[in-house]
Design a protein that fits this description.
The chain has 298 residues and is α/β, with parallel strands linked by helices. Helix content is 34%, strand content 27%. Strand 11 and strand 12 form a beta hairpin. It is elongated.
C-alpha cells in the first residue's frame, strides 16, 4: 500500500489521562478515509499531532514519510480544517484568503478561483461576520486548498451545512479524490460518511477498534434476520441447536443474529414450522460504530 499518512504506535498523555494509546494506522494515497469515534476517543488529538500542533508522548505521525515540522513546504503538501476556524469578522471572504495566500506564498490569482470552487463566488466581497456557519465551513475548505495540497485533513467539515450543503460536500470530496488527493475526514454524520469514504477507521478510548471498507465491515457483522412464524418458541429452540441466537421481537416475531435467511428458512422447513414473513436487514455503518465503541448498550 502506498501510504501517504502513517501513524505508528502513537501515544499522547495529558497528565494521568491517556488520550491516544499506541495507535497505528495508514491512509492510502488517493483515497477518502473516514476517521470516526465518540467524543473523547482521541480523534482530534491524533489530527493535531499529525499537523504538528501537539507533541506526542511516544510514537510518530507522518505525512509523505515526514513529520509536519519537517515538511519543506507544508501548505503544498497538506491542508486542514481543524476545530472551529477563526476569522476576522471585519474582513471579507476574499480578503481572508488573500491574507493566508500571502503567508503561504500562494499567488493571489488563486483566491477567486477557490471562492468559486466552494460556492462563495457571489459572497466574496461580503464581510465574514455576515456569513452563516455553513458559509464559514466553505471558506475554511477554500483556505485548506490554497496551497493546492496533495492531502486534506478535515475535522467535522459538515458542521453547519444544510442537506444541500452536505450533498455538495460529498461531491466536493469525491472530486478531490478523483484529482488524486488523499482525504482524511472525521464526522459524526455517519450516513454521509458511509456514502463517500473508501474505508473507515474507528477509535475508542484512544485505540483503533475497527478498520476497513464499509461494505466489508458491515458484511462481517452479519445481517440480522427478522422472521414471523407459527411457532417462534420452537423455531428459537431449533435455531439455538444450530448455534444461532434468536431473540423475541413482538408477537410471533424473532430476530436471528449472525445467520442468513436461507439458513433460517431451512431450519424452519426441517422442523415443519410455517413462516409467514422473513427479511434480512443489513448492518449499517452506524450499527458497526455503536457495536465496536460499546455505545449501543447505553
Amino acid at each position: 500500500m502506498d501510504a501517504v499518512i502513517e501513524v505508528d504506535s502513537l501515544t499522547k498523555r495529558f497528565g494521568r489521562t491517556v488520550a491516544v494509546d499506541g495507535l497505528s494506522f495508514a491512509v492510502p494515497r488517493g483515497s477518502i478515509v473516514g476517521f470516526l469515534g465518540p467524543n473523547g476517543s482521541g480523534k482530534t488529538t491524533t489530527l493535531r499531532t499529525l499537523l504538528g500542533l501537539t507533541t506526542p508522548t511516544a510514537g510518530r505521525a507522518t505525512v509523505e514519510g515526514r513529520p509536519y515540522a519537517a515538511l519543506p513546504d507544508p501548505a503544498r503538501v497538506i491542508g486542514a480544517v481543524l476545530d472551529a476556524a477563526q476569522f476576522h469578522p471585519g474582513r471579507t471572504g476574499r480578503d481572508h484568503l488573500r491574507v493566508f495566500a500571502r503567508a503561504a506564498g500562494v499567488a493571489r490569482s488563486r483566491v477567486d478561483a477557490l471562492l468559486r470552487l466552494v460556492g462563495l463566488g457571489e459572497a466574496a466581497g461580503r464581510r465574514v461576520r455576515g456569513y452563516s456557519l455553513g458559509m464559514r465551513q466553505r471558506l475554511s475548505l477554500a483556505t485548506a486548498l490554497l496551497g493546492d495540497p496533495r492531502v486534506l485533513v478535515l475535522d467535522e467539515p459538515a458542521n453547519g451545512l444544510d442537506p444541500q450543503g452536505i450533498r455538495w460536500l460529498r461531491d466536493f470530496l469525491r472530486d478531490r479524490r478523483d484529482e488524486g488527493r488523499t482525504v482524511l475526514v472525521s464526522s459524526h454524520v455517519l450516513s454521509e460518511v458511509a456514502q463517500v469514504v473508501d474505508e473507515v477507521l474507528v477509535l475508542h478510548k484512544g485505540r483503533l477498534v475497527a478498520q476497513g471498507p464499509v461494505a466489508e465491515l458491515t458484511a462481517a457483522a452479519g445481517a440480522p434476520v427478522r422472521v414471523r412464524s407459527a411457532d417462534p418458541g420452537r423455531l428459537s429452540e431449533a435455531l439455538a441447536a444450530r448455534g444461532v441466537t434468536a431473540t423475541g421481537d413482538g408477537p410471533g416475531w424473532l430476530v436471528a443474529h449472525r445467520t442468513t435467511a436461507e439458513s433460517v428458512g431451512a431450519t424452519a422447513a426441517e422442523h415443519r414450522i410455517a413462516i409467514y414473513e422473513m427479511a434480512a436487514h443489513p448492518r449499517t455503518l452506524e450499527d458497526i460504530f455503536l457495536h465496536v465503541t460499546g455505545e449501543a448498550d447505553r
